[in-house]
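Researcher: I'm preparing a figure for a lab meeting and need a structural model of a single chain. I don't have an experimental structure, so a prediction will have to do for now. The sequence is pasted below. Please return the structure as tokens so I can convert it later.
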Amino acid sequence: MDGTSTRNAKSPKAESHIQSALTCVTNLMKTAPRPPAEPSDYEVWAHAFCTAV
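Model: Understood. Here is the structure written out token by token.
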């Protein structure tokens, strides 16, 4: 391994992409249905989660 992946992971651009992805997932988790919820609520949420991720 040439260390490229490690170097790229520490770049400001990579750091920005990682932060954006974490923000996206965090926001999606905040919208997750809470019990008691209908099964369709979970289906809609899971579709949004999978589309975003």
